[in-house]
Amino acid sequence: MTLNWFKFASPASFYPLAGRLIPLFWSLTVALVLVGLYWGFFQTTDHLGGSNPQKEYYRIIFVHVPAAWMSMWLYLVMVVWAAIGLVFNTRLSFMMAKAIAPTGAIFTFLALWTGAFWGRPSWGTYWDWDPRLTSELVLFFLYIGYMALHAAIDDIRRADRAAALLALVGLVMVPVIYWSINCPDPNQCAALHQRSNLTRIDGNILFSMLTMTLGLWMYSFATSLTRLRGLILERESEAQWVRELIEHGEKQR
């Protein structure tokens, strides 16, 4: 017996599936984040601060780097869902894109905030118009712009399409952010950020960073699906299955 995945394109079918997945993702979030933070703070002493307490601020990478990665990844995912909605005119795709945007904005803000705290002791300033910092700030404004544009248009269908088009236009910022410190010629990268090279990172540090990234990824699933369920109920409020769901819930009280 094969599972027909296309049936979950319907909000009515996806709603209960999301409800079953959310507790799993929250459990994975807690477990992975705790492991990642523990490993980063207690298993990498010799590699980071060591005997020099002034270098303990480097531990912020265990939050900063995963948050920055997730800010770019979630924007890509948001654009994919928005594009699917534009091409196939699927309601759930537009709702998925809208549900992802706030989480992406939170991670982008977190990356900027932790980056400022990193920059003060490392570079002597909270902010510098470094290419990576500037492009990440533009990404944050794109998330905010997407949500603001969607909220400014009363007609849901028009709002979905207009916000999706804005997201597609802003996709150019993702490669810009990456190449801002990873351009082929290092001499042309006028950036305070060092080039990213995972192969040169110590194993303990890499393990903590990747574990934290997985934890934030699970958090993204949990929060986005939770937000999506709310959007489904809001937009499908006149559907018979939603009315039956509400009536069933009231009877159980």
Describe this structure in words.
The chain is mainly α. It has a single domain, classed as Four Helix Bundle (Hemerythrin (Met), subunit A) (Up-down Bundle), CATH 1.20.120. It has eight helices and no strands. Helix 1 runs antiparallel to helix 7 (203-235), helix 2 (61-88) runs antiparallel to helix 3 (91-123) and helix 4 packs antiparallel against helix 5 (156-170). The longest helix has 33 residues, at 91-123. The protein starts with 10 loop residues before the first helix and ends with a helix.
Can you tag this structure with a few keywords?
about 250 residues; mainly alpha; 8 helices; about 75% helix; about 0% strand
Secondary structure: elements and pairs:
Elements: H1 11-42, H2 61-88, H3 91-123, H4 131-152, H5 156-170, H6 173-182, H7 203-235, H8 240-252
Helix pairs in contact: 1-7, 2-3, 2-5, 2-7, 3-4, 3-7, 4-5, 4-6
Distance between the termini: 38 Å
The computed structural class is mainly alpha
Q: Could you spell the SSE succession in H and E letters?
A: HHHHHHHH
The shape is globular
How helical, in percent, are the residues?
A: over 70%
CATH topology: Four Helix Bundle (Hemerythrin (Met), subunit A)
Strand percentage: under 5%
Number of helices, counting only DSSP H or I runs of 4 residues or more: 8
CATH architecture: Up-down Bundle
Radius of gyration: 21 Å
Report the CATH C-level class.
Answer: Mainly Alpha
Largest sheet: none
Average pLDDT rating: 84
Number of folding domains? 1
What is the β-strand count? 0
Low-pLDDT sequence parts: none
